[in-house]
Amino acid sequence: MASYARELTPAVKVQNLHRSFNEAGGVLNGLDLDIAPGEFVALLGRSGSGKSTLLRSLAGLDRGVAGTGRIEVPEKVSVVFQDSRLLPWKRVLDNVTLGLRADDAAQRGEKALEEVGLAGRERAWPHELSGGEQQRAALARSLVRDPQLLLADEPFGALDALTRIRMHTLLRTLCEVHQPAVLLVTHDVDEAIVLADRVIVLDGGVVRHDAQIELDGRRSVADPAFARLRARLLSELGVEDDHDAAPGRRTGSHLGERAAS
Ligand SMILES: Nc1ncnc2c1ncn2[C@@H]1O[C@H](COP(=O)(O)OP(=O)(O)OP(=O)(O)O)[C@@H](O)[C@H]1O
């Protein structure tokens, strides 16, 4: 996944972005950000630091919010949220293909559902799917459009730890196949390290920290280099790393690893 070239025209270019909701002060204060085609960027930041505001700006979902600046994104952008946002009155396949204007929409939807491990569930209703399956369907709905940019706002935030790990593997695999640029908002430092090519930290309405993840191959929380990176990112976030705490009780972390890519 990290095989992008910096000199390529960026998939995302943000220059001097300002956003504010009231006169009390800006949420984004002159933010600059480039994301290369195919690059997977995780976005960390304290609660209220403006992560969702940035993502919504890139998605064009911030109409009515005061602001200035320049945003360039590709034509095909898909968004995934923490909740699947499947329409309860439509079957899974119809949710996946909703708004897709293509003669082969149904076949593409079926293929996307197969890719996310939901083959055979095309005619199910959303309420018949588990939370993890609903997020799989949401991923299928975004990927069926073959996006050049995938924006994901804590897509696994509501899932249990084991389902999350499975979703990490699935997302990596899908990204390797489809090669979208990705901006993933997450609170989970381990999730960021496991998944991303690059991690950025938002603070004060700008990108405060921006680093490539140099870990190769299998990324495991047991790897000392992983632990060092986690400690550095937690410190950027103003949090102490309680690395010695019991698994699952660490601040901003969970057990996770990814297979070599
Ligand atoms: N629609 C809105 N109206 C008024 N203020 C808002 C609105 N949306 C966000 N804000 C404010 O903007 C700031 C940034 O919010 P945002 O949701 O972007 O932060 P975040 O980093 O995604 O937070 P979290 O990690 O808690 O989800 C917060 O102070 C929030 O209260």
UniProtKB/TrEMBL annotation:
Residues covered by the ABC transporter domain: 12-229
Region feature (Disordered): 242-261
Xref: SUPFAM superfamilies: P-loop containing nucleoside triphosphate hydrolases (SSF52540)
InterPro entries reported for this sequence: AAA+_ATPase (IPR003593), ABC_transporter-like_ATP-bd (IPR003439), ABC_transporter-like_CS (IPR017871), ABC_transporter_ATP-bind (IPR050166), P-loop_NTPase (IPR027417)
Entries under PROSITE patterns matching the protein: ABC_TRANSPORTER_1 (PS00211), ABC_TRANSPORTER_2 (PS50893)
Coiled-coil boundaries: none
Keywords: ATP-binding, Cell membrane, Membrane, Nucleotide-binding, Translocase, Transport
Translocase listed as a keyword: yes
Source taxon at top rank: Bacteria
Any Pfam family: ABC_tran
GO MF entries: ATP binding; ATP hydrolysis activity
PANTHER family noted in UniProt: ALIPHATIC SULFONATES IMPORT ATP-BINDING PROTEIN SSUB, TAURINE IMPORT ATP-BINDING PROTEIN-RELATED
Protein name as it appears in the record: ABC transporter ATP-binding protein
Record organism: Nocardioides alpinus
